[in-house]
Amino acid sequence: MTTSSTRETEIAALETPLQAQRDLRGLVAHQIFGPLLALVTAIIVFSLTTTTFFNPDNLALIAQQSVVVGTLALGQTLIILTSGIDLANGAIMVLGSVVIGKMAVGHDPVLAAMLGVVVCLALGAVNGALVSWLKLPPFIVTLGVMSVVMAAARLYTNSQSFPITSDFLTALNNGPVIGGVTITYGVMLWIGLTAFLGYALTQTSWGVRVYAVGDNLRSAELAGIKVRRVLLSVYVVAGMIYALAAWQALGRTPTADPSGYVNGNLDSITAVVIGGTSLFGGRGGVVGTFIGALIVTVLQNGLTQAGIDSLYQQVATGVLVIVAVSVDRLARRRQVR
Q1: How far is C-alpha 117 from the chain's CA centre?
Q2: CA-CA 20 to 30 A from 166: which of 7, 113, 285, 293?
Q3: Are the C-beta atoms of residues 263 and 317 closer than 8 Å to each other?
Q4: What is the pTM of this model?
Q5: Are residues 191 and 67 in contact, defined by beta-carbon separation less than 8 angstroms?
Q6: In this structure, is the dihedral angle defined by the CA atoms of residues 74, 75, 78 and 83, taken in order, positive or negative?
Q7: Any idea what DSSP says for residue 172?
Q8: Residues 174-202 pLDDT 10s
Q9: pLDDT value at position 309?
């Protein structure tokens, strides 16, 4: 009897994480259905109402226009999954880009890029340490860091911009031509990074811990999860992603400008929310964020080609954000019941 009971306990212990992973994959798949349907609907509508939207060159342009905010949004997703938020991500990316741009003048561009990565990683670690070890609210922490970093970028550059002439630093805006359309390395990097993070979140123990911390921090602590380490790791990984976004930005606009991407933080949050990730943590994923970033760009591109004023584009995006948050709120209430 003892042996049989022990075996049953061992089997149950093995099956529990497997079942959790299966449930997690099903949840992620379900949550991207709405954003994907919205994206397909928008593409169909603009294809029928304009003559130039649905052509290879324009579709490639939409993808290229999405990469910077889309990459920023991947890091934002990780933080929001832990029930946090990062208002400083755009500022961190800009500081990383101007550090790279200024250092590249008369120096090795690879070394300059490495320095930019260090800066973004360090700032991500600072955010993570303040949130995880001092237990300060992420909103307040990142709001303060955003102000400091924005000022630091202007002080470091004397509010000047630096043209980027290095082929290495602008390489992500190049790529192979397939069917007459350029598929940039930046788009490839964005897709690859989304796939990698999607795997890490759904197929690794680190990803399970990230979702657990965001869903219920207290329960995660009681389950033996080292919450501080998880939170710190999330902010550090996000910092690395912001460094990649800085590289993307230098490829898209070959100028390191301390006043660039002033709305990068809000745009990234918009992509995350429209993509189905809950602002309350523990629900969503990077695939939805990828789709959300495309939705925002498709709306901007399609409405522009339809001759609609840019103010209405902002209205449409704002309505989408409110609808997405409302749907998430209702879904959570049903789960509680």
Answers
A1: 17
A2: 293
A3: no
A4: 0.88
A5: no
A6: negative
A7: G
A8: 999 988 888 999 999 999 999 999 999 99
A9: 84
Q: In the prediction, which pLDDT does 13 show?
A: 47
Here the tokens at position 313 are 């584009």
* C-alpha distances in Å from residue 70, one per residue of 73, 128, 210, 229, 285: 5, 22, 20, 26, 13
Q: What is the distance of C-alpha 248 from the center of its chain?
A: 13
Q: Are 301 and 292 in contact (CB under 8 A)?
A: no
Task: Please name the residue that has the structure tokens 């789960």.
Answer: 335
Element (H, E) at 178: strand 177-178
Would you say 305 and 85 are in contact if contact means Cβ atoms under 8 Å apart? no
Rounded Cα gap, residues 275 and 293, in angstroms: 8
Write the CA distances from 99 to 12, 15, 168, 241, integer angstroms. Answer: 52, 49, 15, 16
Q: Tokens 């022990």 — which residue?
A: 6
Q: Residue 122: which residues within 8 A CB-CB, separation 6 or more?
A: 239
Distance, CA of 170 to CA of 252 (rounded, Å): 8
Q: What is the DSSP letter of 173?
A: G
